[in-house]
Amino acid sequence: MNKKEQIERAIVSITSAVQRLKPESASAIAIGKDIKLTHFTHGLGCACKLRPQNLEEILASFPPVSHPNVIVGTSTSDDAAVYRLNENQAIVQTVDFFTPIVDDPYHFGAISAANSLSDIYAMGGKPIFALNIVGFPEKRLPLDVLKQILKGAADKANEAGIPILGGHTVEDAEPKFGMAVTGIVNPQKVLTNSSAQIGDALILTKPIGLGLITTGIKRGMVDEATIKKAISVMSYLNRTAAEEMGNFDVHACTDVTGFGLLGHLKEITTGSRVNARIRISDIPVLEQAAELALAGIAPGGTLANIDYVKPFIQWDDKVSEIEKLLLNDAQTSGGLIIVVSDSDKENMVTKLKNKGVSDARIFGEITGAGKGKITVNP
Length: 378
Description:
Elements: H1 3-21, H2 52-59, E1 70-72, E2 81-84, E3 90-98, H3 105-122, E4 126-136, H4 143-160, E5 164-171, E6 176-185, E7 201-204, H5 210-218, H6 224-235, H7 239-245, E8 250-255, H8 260-272, E9 274-279, H9 289-294, H10 300-309, E10 313-315, H11 321-328, E11 336-340, H12 345-354, E12 361-369, E13 374-377
Parallel strand pairs: 4-5, 9-13, 10-13
Antiparallel strand pairs: 1-2, 2-3, 3-6, 4-6, 7-11, 7-12, 8-11, 9-12
Helix pairs in contact: 3-4, 5-6, 8-10
């Protein structure tokens, strides 16, 4: 038997084993509050992303996209693709889906929708409609669970002012949900990862620590107040922050998701060929996140992020290992990193807080031209 035949036989064997493990019906599965969605998945939310270094290696094997109407493609690790329709209008397109990040189906749907919409907001765009993407284990979970997921997403889309026009479903071994979102933007006002300028300030709009909190939720280690706070943060649309960006001299933007705060800031610094400096004391962190980090509760994506950013980070000697975990924590539906001119930073934070973005903070600055180095101070 040659190597190819051995691999094919192994695939058949594994597939058969998985099918044997699936229940024939959902009748034995509890309904309602007894269902804990995080127990039906191997990973959590955006922490399920492929390791960024592996993804970069794969994408590097493909030729760069070359088309006269492509404004943003794959070359800058941006949040969404942008395609010019005419001089005044471009399409912004993104797709995002993941496994359950919380136990409640309704909140899972709402968080997934907010996370998908965030990519459009981060590009300076306005979402106009969405399509659902569903993977569902109908032999393991009752269909009422899917109904609640879709309702949570529909309510969040309604809050964003967009319709959901359809979607696609497949049977899967574990639940997955997300959206393909289409938006519009003025081609002259697209915000990318590659346009930060020396002297710009860095603003963060949501607290970090969501990956640690959600991992703690799965293990039953998080109190109810912290769970409610995390759900509130993840469900909160980045729309208000995005709308305010149009009123200030903003040069670049991205949202903080699976690659952590440092991983996504690194995409800005390398894409813009600049260096940055940040201060941990100015970064909002969810309560109980540091406690969970100290207990060794960290998603696999967070640990992968530490390796990913290592060549680009200069740590101050006073930065603790717990703080390093927090800065690399894999977020789901996190906040925006807004890169704004220094003269606008104070006014922008004040305006954001007045509009309800209560966790907005100035946490660093672009220090000069360079290869993407990020200095982390206490």
